[in-house]
């Protein structure tokens, strides 16, 4: 059976000045394209791809009253953090006064506990006791369980080796301030001064995980959604971010480790906004970026930010089997690399795993050999590539050239499979599906009521509506059988 749904695109340039908001800030406008039917536009959550985690959905053409929008905002307040950032910080100061044996962290609630709260949590919750000064002040990632859901937070934490390399790289390049977007362990290493020469460095962490509010003060952390550039704690946090960018701006860099399932074009849109804020400080240069992402996403990143280049450094994580050096790791090592707009020649990669290529003028993996025909060190995945003279480029060693397909493929591949990088609707290579002239008109689904996912469209409300429809059908059935009811009776 052929799947009719082609795909979903995000529309960043639209006429909506104030898109509707979900619990994670302004939503994004998406367009779902369906073969032979056209497309439909709707607003949905920018951060979470799973409707079970954030069920906001509103067709583009649907208008919502100010009253409904206000009721949504009130509802969002009830599902947010239990305490404000300032209240979390005050609790932290109290816990700091306790001796380490009296400090308790509830892993079930992800909450530092005051003394009078411990007894209640100990009954059925997972408790961690004896919290050291170092964990409390500088290393909350040692206490907080990572939220590894790939459709939401996708929290994978850098290994100590990766942290040491990244911080040293930033130091060697002369940066004194680092804006960490979803990179908590880099932030921890800088503010803890646990690594050499970090005493003169400053860091600000922007992250969607509000749990960090109880460990980092208002000057060190902002509750932030990188997919819509929204500060969930309001204008105070936004002003702190602007102040951090503007002071000593010439020696600042961005380190970002976003979820790999996140849309590249959306993340790029956010980075461009940050760059614009930074350039308001009378500078025409781009803010230095170090973006951690899988190597196979390189074409999409370069398409969005052409000035980025990929470094060969393999980024390892502590809590991801495939992205680590462990026994369960990939044979070629982690597929995650660093993409940067800084000249690759300036970034020194450590021996003995890396070497300097004098022809390419950059550091590469030792297995990444220079190809005289391509005039480049061509390997992407950690293996030594081989040159195919028919394709006129280097390919992975697991590929062989297929004359029938006209390209290099796996030896046991099926010939005739068509790969296209262009439009999924008409097949042309000069445009994408959302710009296809053959795309049909907008799917009109206004004939049936679509949910807006406000307060009145939660699960219990939907069940109630189904019961009401069932009663209405029964009522009509009784009328057809001559069992007349009160004509003034209405079922809503």
UniProtKB/TrEMBL annotation:
InterPro entries attached to this UniProt entry: DNA_methylase_N6_adenine_CS, Mlase_EEF1AKMT1/ZCCHC4, ZCCHC4, Znf_CTCHY, Znf_CTCHY_sf
Transmembrane segments: none
Superkingdom of the organism of origin: Eukaryota
Chief subcellular location: cytoplasm
Keywords of the record: Cytoplasm, Metal-binding, Methyltransferase, Nucleus, Transferase, Zinc, Zinc-finger
Region annotated Disordered, chain positions: 440-492
Gene Ontology molecular function: any one: nucleic acid binding
Domain CTCHY-type: 352-413
Subcellular location: Cytoplasm
GO cellular component, one term: nucleolus
Compositional bias segments (type: Basic residues): 463-492
Entry-linked Pfam families: N6-adenineMlase
Name of the protein described by the UniProt record: CTCHY-type domain-containing protein
């Amino acid at each position: 059976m052929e799947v009719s749904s082609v795909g979903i695109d995000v529309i960043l340039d639209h006429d909506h000045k104030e898109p509707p908001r979900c619990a994670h800030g302004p939503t994004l406008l998406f367009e779902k394209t369906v073969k032979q039917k056209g497309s439909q536009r709707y607003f949905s959550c920018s951060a979470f791809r799973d409707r079970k985690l954030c069920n906001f959905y509103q067709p583009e053409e649907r208008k919502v009253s100010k009253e409904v929008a206000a009721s949504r905002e009130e509802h969002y307040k009830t599902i947010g953090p239990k305490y404000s950032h300032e209240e979390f910080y005050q609790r932290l100061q109290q816990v700091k006064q306790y001796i380490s044996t009296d400090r308790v962290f509830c892993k079930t609630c992800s909450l530092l506990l005051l003394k009078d709260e411990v007894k209640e949590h100990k009954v059925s919750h997972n408790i961690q006791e004896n919290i050291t000064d170092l964990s409390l002040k500088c290393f909350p990632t040692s206490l907080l369980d990572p939220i590894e859901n790939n459709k939401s937070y996708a929290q994978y934490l850098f290994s100590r080796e990766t942290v040491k390399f990244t911080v040293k790289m930033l130091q060697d390049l002369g940066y004194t301030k680092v804006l960490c977007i979803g990179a908590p362990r880099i932030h921890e290493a800088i503010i803890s001064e646990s690594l050499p020469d970090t005493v003169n460095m400053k860091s600000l962490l922007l992250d969607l995980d509000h749990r960090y509010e109880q460990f980092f003060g208002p000057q060190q952390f902002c509750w932030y959604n990188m997919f819509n550039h929204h500060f969930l704690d309001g204008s105070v946090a936004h002003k702190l971010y602007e102040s951090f960018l503007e002071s000593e701006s010439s020696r600042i860099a961005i380190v970002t480790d976003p979820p790999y399932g996140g849309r590249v074009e959306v993340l790029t849109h956010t980075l461009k906004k940050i760059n614009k804020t930074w350039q308001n400080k009378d500078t025409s240069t781009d803010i230095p970026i170090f973006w951690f992402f899988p190597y196979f996403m390189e074409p999409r990143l370069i398409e969005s930010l052409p000035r980025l280049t990929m470094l060969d450094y393999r980024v390892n994580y502590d809590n991801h089997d495939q992205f680590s050096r462990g026994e369960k790791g990939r044979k070629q090592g982690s597929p995650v690399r660093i993409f940067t707009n800084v000249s690759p020649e300036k970034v020194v990669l450590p021996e003995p795993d890396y070497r300097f290529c004098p022809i390419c003028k950059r550091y590469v993996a030792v297995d990444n050999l220079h190809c005289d025909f391509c005039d480049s060190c061509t390997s992407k995945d950690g293996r030594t590539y081989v040159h195919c003279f028919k394709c006129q480029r280097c390919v992975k060693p697991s590929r062989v050239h297929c004359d029938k397909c006209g390209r290099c493929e796996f030896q046991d591949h099926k010939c005739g499979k068509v790969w296209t990088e262009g439009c999924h609707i008409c097949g042309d290579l000069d445009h994408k599906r959302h710009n296809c002239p053959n795309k049909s008109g907008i799917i009109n689904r206004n004939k049936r009521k679509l949910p807006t996912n406000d307060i009145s469209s939660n699960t219990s409300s939907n069940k109630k509506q189904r019961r009401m429809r069932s009663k209405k059908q029964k009522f009509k059935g009784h009328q057809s059988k001559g069992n007349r009811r009160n004509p003034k009776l209405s079922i809503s």
